[in-house]
TrEMBL record:
Claim: Transcription regulation is one of the keywords in the record: no
Pfam families: HypA (PF01155)
Protein name, entry field: Hydrogenase maturation factor HypA
NCBIfam families named among the record's database cross-references: hypA
GO-annotated molecular function: nickel cation binding; zinc ion binding
Amino acid sequence: MVHELALAMEAVRLVARDAARRGCQQVTRVKLLCGELTAVMPEAMRLAFTCASRGTLLEGAQLDITTSPAWAQCSCCGEEFRPEEWLLLCPRCHTPGARLLSGREMEVVSYEGK
């Protein structure tokens, strides 16, 4: 939950700053994209978001979370694959340490307000 709280606080900070700059009085919905390797638990993130948004123009906003899959590319043979372990072992040539292409992102995709 501590991990999610830090991420939620940063998301609230970023959205609140941008929404205020645009003259928004209240944010009603926030859409996040979280990579599957970020270890974000959606229910914990929703609770953290509720706590982090108290007293801000995001208070009461709905939080939508989309999880993006992890993808890696082997630095030896170029194979793109879904990693099954943290070693990023290539399923074709078995070389460890592939380059992670996605799965660690955490971004605010959009928000709605009035």
